[in-house]
Amino acid sequence: MRKGIMYRILQLNGLWKPREVSEVVNGIMNGKINATGEIVMTSGEQTLTDERISPTSVILFSARANSNFGLPFVKSKTKGKAIIGLEGLVGSITFDYVVLG
């Protein structure tokens, strides 16, 4: 497995065994798409570096705590990174994220 890959992926050479294909497809059907991460945010903006990000990706956030602030928002995206903004937070909080596309 490559660094950062949490679930089995198929080799790029196309020499797959039926068991490998079944494991990957079953993992996908069970939500194991290896598209998640976490970011610790403070107020302002921060760079999120993730090789799965592209200019057309959608990045969704989920807070790990309840408080009086909004969710982070994406200010810009390029290949491998995004600038993430957050308003009104004092201190820091961890968010889970998913990258799609």
Q: What is the topological layout?
A:
Blueprint lengths: L17 H12 L6 E6 L2 E6 L8 E6 L9 E6 L2 E6 L6 E8 L1
Antiparallel strand pairs: 1-6, 2-5, 3-6, 4-5
Quote the distance from N terminus to C terminus.
Answer: 21 Å
How many domains? The number is 2
| Integer-rounded radius of gyration | 16 Å
- Mean pLDDT value: 85
Please mark out the parts with pLDDT under 50 across 5 or more consecutive residues, or reply none.
Answer: none
Helix content: 10-25%
Helix/strand class: mainly beta
Major sheet attributes: 3 strands, antiparallel
Tell me the number of helical segments per DSSP (H or I, 4 or more residues long).
1
Number of strands: 6
> Strand order of the main beta sheet, please?
1-6-3
Q: What are the secondary-structure elements, in order, as H or E?
A: HEEEEEE
Strand content: 35-45%
User: Which overall shape is indicated by the principal axes computed on the Cα atoms?
Assistant: elongated
Give descriptors for this structure.
101 residues; mainly beta; 2 domains; three-stranded antiparallel beta sheet; 1 helix; 6 strands
Structure, described:
By secondary structure, this protein is mainly β. It folds into two domains: 1-34, no CATH class; 35-100. 12% of the residues lie in helices and 38% in strands. Strand 4 (73-78) and strand 5 (81-86) form a beta hairpin. The radius of gyration is 16 Å and the shape is elongated.
